[in-house]
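Re: that chain you flagged

S.,

Sorry for the slow reply, it's been a week of failed gels. I finally had a moment to sit down with the sequence you sent. For the record, here it is as I used it:
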Amino acid sequence: MFGPPGRLYVYLSYGIHWCVNIVCGPAGVGAGVLIRALEPVHGVDVMRARRGRDALRELASGPGRVGQALAAGPWLAGRPADLRPPDRRRTIAATPRVGISKAVEQPWRFLDPESPYVSRRPRSAA
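Prediction finished late last night. Pasting the structure tokens below so you have them in one place:
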């Protein structure tokens, strides 16, 4: 989390799920973004095999699912993130965070409210 921006930070959550973050602050500053969901576009067959699911919606809609779909683990930590622009214009909404107990009201969750791949439907959009 304190490494150079654009790198992956991977950690084990609750001892069972590998979660993937992208470092977004300067080196030495702990700042990152948890990837809670992604839209499967590349490597879909591999993701299906890893997840044991066929439905696109179930491949990477949740931080644990993202980790499993990407075969995340400590071996990915520090590697550069392969970020690509979307194939079309997206709507971005800021909503309250989910799955936490501190600063719950902060609108620090960013998503496309029209996407079927978000991990949880937004409670409210800003």
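What I noticed first: Helices lie at 44-51, 63-69.

Talk soon,
D.
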